[in-house]
Amino acid sequence: MTKDHIVFIVDDDRRIREALIELLSSHGIRVEAFGSAGDYISAEKPDAPACLILDVELPDINGLDLQRQIAEGDHPPIVFITGHGDIPSSVKAIKRGAVDFLTKPFSEADLMAAIRMALAQDWKTRSERADINALKRRYLELTQREREVLPLVVSGLLNKQAAAELGISEVTLEIHRRNVMQKMAAASFADLVRIAERLEIPITHSRRTGGHGS
Fold first, then answer.
1. What CATH number is attached to the domain comprising 154?
2. Which of 22, 102, 124, 186 has a CA 20 to 30 Å removed from the CA of 205?
3. In a domain, 32, yes or no
């Protein structure tokens, strides 16, 4: 692990925080620790792959409640730690996306395994988000006509059907299609279809032909 990662710790027990800081630092991991959920929420956080080690019992906001509150935002994967673990709480936490639910005292091996899993998960999430954002930027570079051509083309309509739907010639349709392929950096038609699916572009079928036709 490298300093490119960061692990956030939220635990109201100072001794636990200090022990975790020492342990993770020995593994070359950058650490930021907080004594309450409120301190964590209000803190400015670096834009880096991260993991949140979160105690269940906190003085202000219960750890499970915090998990629910931040569920809609971009937050790092959570590893719960607790001295009062119970099966219903652990099941609830895991169902909401927690990577693991460790009961104190937990082993260093179990904690490090959970952290590695959480960091790998965050790397993947960030990579996928970056890919989607890049696709969105390319999509915004399309002209209005090219945005009309894209859903027709990926629906599987023939060029003549798509052209008829838009009231343009097949030659013009083909020009727009090539421009879309180039701007979206699609290596093939199948690649363009996958891009449209990732951008959740509605597939449009011709109203004139009523489907694919031949």
1. 1.10.10.10
2. 186
3. yes
Helix H or strand E encompassing 29: none
| 90 vs 106: CA distance, rounded Å | 15
The span from the CA of 119 to the CA of 124, in Å, is 9
Of 103, 132, 161, the residue at which a domain comes to its end is 132
Per residue of the chain (214 residues), give pLDDT as tens: 445 889 999 999 999 999 999 999 999 999 999 999 999 999 999 989 999 999 998 888 889 899 988 887 788 999 999 887 677 778 888 888 899 999 888 999 999 999 999 999 999 999 999 999 999 999 999 999 999 999 999 998 999 999 999 999 999 999 999 999 999 999 999 999 999 999 999 876 544 444 443 3
Q: State how far the Cα of 193 lies from the Cα of 2, in Å rounded to an integer.
A: 37
Residue in 119, 126, 122, 67 with CA at minimum distance from that of residue 97:
67
Return the amino acid letter for 34.
F
User: Whole-model pTM?
Assistant: 0.75
* Residue 201 DSSP symbol: P
Residues 11 and 98 in one domain: yes
In a 13 Å sphere around the CA of 193, the CA atoms on its Cβ side amount to 8
Domain that holds residue 182: 141-198
For residues 11 and 105, membership in a common domain is answered with yes
Radius of gyration for the chain, computed over Cα atoms and rounded to the nearest angstrom: 25
Amino acid at position 111, single letter:
L
